[in-house]
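Working notes for the structural subgroup meeting. M.R. asked for a predicted model of this chain before we commit to crystallization trials. I am recording the input and output together here so anyone reviewing the notebook later can reproduce the run.

Input as submitted:
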Amino acid sequence: MSYSIKKMIKIYLNQRYDEHTNLFTNYRQTEDDYKFRFVALLFKALLKQNENIKKAWGESFVGSTKVDGLFSILDDESIIAMLSEVEVSGPWSVVSNTHYVKDRKKLAKNLKLMLNIIYKGNVFAGFNITKVKLYGVQVYQKQFFIYSLQMIFPKLYVFKEELRFDYPTSPALFRSQLPIFFNSMLLMKNLIESTLENVLNFLNDTGVGCTDERYIDSTNNSP
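Returned structure, recorded in token form:
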């Protein structure tokens, strides 16, 4: 059993005894309790062994927008590029379609800004930016939503849902449902780490391509 799986199992089961974030009752926890005592801990366990990814929670910005979780590419303690974003749309027990839609739009806009910044980091690689696909994660109620954003043509971006999965909250079903949940978490980890490799390949590309910044589009426009 991998380190990530062992840590996630421990974090998951500890929620039963956490007075601030109990996934197995209708305890009225705050969004911050849910974010920092459950979601952030899961991601830290999932990506802890990758020293090339910086994990930041609660105090990070993409442009002028504050985000819940931000993953960045590290090189000798310095940040090369932003890689992925996580948005927690309220505690699991609160239903708010308005919050869900607002955070989904926020993810799309921020991923677009991240991709534009990556492009500006090596404009000589030009059209190879189309090989870079960024992923963002939204946690709403009892589901993880994984979205991707990719430029498929100059100023043409595609934002879509790639994957969604539930996490179990009934201890009686843990034996059958937790393995599925952890496998989905590992799949999400693989997607994020594949982006890291693609971003580095783009930034290190020495080819000569389009150097016109009009290749990218304003984040004021929808992806």
